[in-house]
Amino acid sequence: MELNGLRVSRETQERLQHFAALFQKWAKTINLVAPSTLDDLWNRHIADSSQVFQIHPKPVIWADLGSGGGFPGVITAIFLAELQDGWVHLVESNHKKAAFLRTALRETNARGSVHSTRIEDAHAEIGRCGAISARALADLDGLLGYSADWMLGQKDCRGFFHKGRDYLREIDKARGRWEFDLLEHSSAVEQESVILEISNLRRLV
């Protein structure tokens, strides 16, 4: 199996397939993603989310903010299972979605745990981490605010944020409050979309 042009092992493929089946089952009763995107689950959500790990394929500790239906947090945790190292802390305050995430992690033997708490309170539970991810959560300025407790003063912590075609406006707005180093990774799945890699975050105001 290939995702975004890269080979995926049989074990990881089986985990992803099991996750997809679980997702479809739970999505019938819980609004995990926009219903209009369910028919394109593999490309729109699973392949898209897998890009985060493909960009940063290291066994680090992740904080996945606003994990929702598990994108990209559960997908990253599934890839880490093959490395037998690293961990994903999934932060999701909605208790029904948190229950789904716990089930998905358990049944796929993925390397992650769920924190059913507000993002603002999550740092106290999680502590230091090496990477932060978020997808369809907030604009870049808001994401940097959520990530600041982890990233400020910690040079080895990086943020990986999915963004759509309006990302340049979000970058300009964020630079009014923050200084940061930026790498733009073009999406292999969604035209005009990117994954923004943020490091060396500093607060301006």
Account of the protein in words:
- This is Ribosomal RNA small subunit methyltransferase G.
- The chain starts with a strand and ends with a strand.
- The model has no long low-confidence stretch (mean pLDDT 92).
- The strands form two sheets. A seven-stranded mixed β-sheet has the order 5-4-3-6-7-9-8, with helices on both faces. It has a two-stranded antiparallel ribbon with strand order 1-2.
- With 205 residues, it is an alpha/beta fold.
- The chain is globular.
- β6, α6 (140-151) and β7 (158-163) form a beta-alpha-beta unit.
- α1 (10-26) packs antiparallel against α4.
- The protein has seven helices and nine strands, in the order ββααβαβαβαβαβαββ.
- The longest helix has 17 residues, at 10-26.
The residue fraction in helices comes out at: 40-55%
Structural class by secondary-structure content? alpha/beta
Question: Roughly how many Å is the radius of gyration?
Answer: 16 Å
Distance between the termini: 47 Å
Order of helices and strands: EEHHEHEHEHEHEHEE
Mean pLDDT: 92
- Strands side by side in the biggest sheet: 5-4-3-6-7-9-8
Shape: globular
Contiguous helical run count: 7
Strand content: 15-25%
Q: Which stretches of 5+ consecutive residues score pLDDT under 50?
A: none
Most strands sheet: 7 strands, mixed
Task: Compute the number of strand runs.
Answer: 9
Subcellular location: Cytoplasm
Family: Belongs to the methyltransferase superfamily. RNA methyltransferase RsmG family.
Organism: Rhizobium redzepovicii
Binding site for S-adenosyl-L-methionine: 66, 71, 119-120, 135
